[in-house]
Amino acid sequence: MLTATEKRIVERCEALMDDTLALTCDLVRGYSVLGEEHAALATMERWFERLELPATRVPLDAPGFAQHPHRAPAEWACDGRYNLVARLNAGAPGPHLVFNGHLDVVPAEPTDMWARPPWEPWVKDGWLYGRGAGDMKAGIAAMIMAVQAVKEAGVEIGFPLTLQTVIEEECTGNGTLACLHQGYSGDFVLIPEPFGSQIYAGQVGVLWFRMHIDGVPAHVLDTRAGRNAIETLVAYLPAFKALEAEINALPRQAPYDTLDSPFNLSIGKIEGGNWASSVPAHAILEGRVGFPPGMSPEEIMNRVRRCIEARHAELGDGSPAPRVEFHGFRSEGFVVDLDTPGIALLSRCHQDLLGEPPKSYLSTCTTDLRAFHVSGEINGTCYGPVAQRIHGVDECVEIDSIRHVLTTYALFIHRWAEMAKAGESES
User: Fold this and answer.
1) What torsion, rounded to 10 degrees, do the Cα atoms 13, 16, 141, 24 define?
2) Buried b (16+ CB within 10 A) or exposed e, 377-404
3) Series of mean pLDDT values for 10-residue runs along the chain (427 residues)
4) Under CATH, what is the fold of the domain 4-203+333-426?
5) pLDDT at residue 427, as a whole number
6) What's the pTM?
7) Which of 84, 138, 197, 277 is least crowded, fewest Cβ atoms below 10 Å from its Cβ?
8) Annotation: CATH topology of 205-327
9) What is the Cα–Cα distance from 141 to 28, expressed in whole angstroms?
């Protein structure tokens, strides 16, 4: 049962839905692919100011961060790039609650496959469309407006609360890690990833890799005079499928032992050659491989190396050994501790609003929850809207699910405050 105060909070959430959708649309218009996040950050800064939330820029090139043991290597510049954080009641007593959401999106190409340009949000049949609408700008809008709803309901937020809007979640996780490196930490984190109103129970490790193949260029009047790097690259693809099968055949810890094939290897990018009438001298492959919780990034890197070395030996074609590089994600997997007070509180909020306990969700990808878990030893979970076709064409998010996340988060903030007060009185 909801109290009179909680019913008032729910009413304010409904009143703020137009603003929540407006913020989502403003963020979608800022097409925030890697290195071009400035428009979305500027939008977020304006909304923080409008809502009278103190905004702080948290740089990715802070002193000492380059040496952080969990920082992923990146080939792009970090100079001048930053996250945006709003921290309330930093010195107040009580458990510190963190909301975290990423502003960056993956590229929308090929954009001609979209019904409309992906950076122009549109609504149809109860769904809001646009690149990043689901992953995860609607969730960011919901977490920000949940704070506003509690304030407008006249409820005091007296405990430490931090709102993190970060970049580089889609490629390294370094944005959130930079926040933790600079002291923007807490005791429990909620991330509105678009997996629906389920309790996120765990995630796999993720590694990015790149393989360079050298061939021998030649005129196509005699292709035998050269060695085709693209054809050589294609010969490695069965080895990567075998590596995926090998990883999934390893003994697994619960609860990943219940899934059929949770550790996926995807070849996401291939480049090669420079002229149709020349035997290509070079070819490059980039891929992503998932791996089990408990396996280190170093171990999976060694497995990728051995896979490529073994295939090179099998081919025996006299070509030079491929060069292997690792850039971007090298993120550990982990299982969430579902028996913590924060997750129990979230479950009660869900049940009181929907009349049934939440389901759990076991992920086969990675999120910024990893930074909190491995770097800060901070527990938390993901709980967000319902989205479709994330990373795909015509990505969209269900508007009713945004409303539910907004309301659940607002109720959670209020009850977290009550829990903090109870803890103070007991102490």
Assistant:
1) 140
2) ebbbbbbbbbbeebeeebbbbbbebbbb
3) 96 98 98 97 98 97 94 90 96 95 98 98 98 98 98 96 98 97 96 97 98 95 93 97 98 94 97 96 98 97 98 93 97 95 97 97 97 87 98 98 98 95 64
4) Aminopeptidase (3.40.630)
5) 46
6) 0.95
7) 277
8) Alpha-Beta Plaits (3.30.70)
9) 11
Strand partners, 161: 88, 97
For the chain, the domains span 4-203+333-426, 205-327
Bond from prior residue into 136 cis (ω within 30 degrees of 0): yes
pLDDT of residue 118: 98
Residues 6 or more apart in contact with residue 249 via CB below 8 angstroms = none
- At residue 264, φ and ψ (nearest 5 deg) are -95, 140
Burial 78-101 (b: 16+ CB within 10 A, else e): beebbbbbbbbeeeeebebbbbbb
Q: Tokens standing for 398?
A: 């269900």
Which amino acid, 77?
A
Q: Which of 367, 9, 40 is nearest to 190 (CA)?
A: 367
Residue 232 CA neighbour count, 13 Å, CB half: 31
* Cβ–Cβ < 8 Å for 206, 365: yes
Strand partners, 283: 213, 272
Q: Which residues contact 411 (CB under 8 A, 6 or more apart)?
A: 2, 6, 9, 10, 349, 352, 353
